[in-house]
Amino acid sequence: MRIDAEHIGEHPEGLYSLPDSMKSDIRKAGDCKKLTGFTCTPTCTAGYTFVMDGQEYRKCKNMAFFHSLTAGNMEHT
Questions:
Q1: Single pTM value for the model
Q2: What is the pLDDT of residues 10-39, one digit of tens each?
Q3: Which stretches does DSSP call E strand in 1-77?
Q4: Which of 5, 28, 35, 73 has its CA 20 to 30 A from that of 55?
């Protein structure tokens, strides 16, 4: 499952109700190289900056928002 997180920085309330397992996967995902001052592929438009549980993140859009469907997160799809 892919979460379309293009506007997550403007609407962080979408993250509040996610199960802890999905939040953990987002935290563990790679940081966005472009948003953290490094070089990424030239075709990448950069990841997303957002606040989750009071902490700011700058995550890669191709790594942080893809999740396996499980019985515990089906209601959030």
A1: 0.74
A2: 777 778 878 888 899 889 999 999 998 898
A3: 48-52, 55-59
A4: 73
Cβ atoms of 30 and 63 closer than 8 Å = yes
56 burial level (CB within 10 Å; 0-12, 13-18, 19+): exposed
The amino acid at 42: P
The two structure tokens encoding residue 3:
């979460």
The answer to whether 61 and 47 have CB atoms below 8 angstroms apart is yes
Cα-based distances in Å from 13 to 42, 49, 52, 58: 31, 14, 9, 17
C-alpha to C-alpha distance for 32 and 76, rounded to whole angstroms: 24
DSSP state of 35: G
Count of residues making up the chain: 77
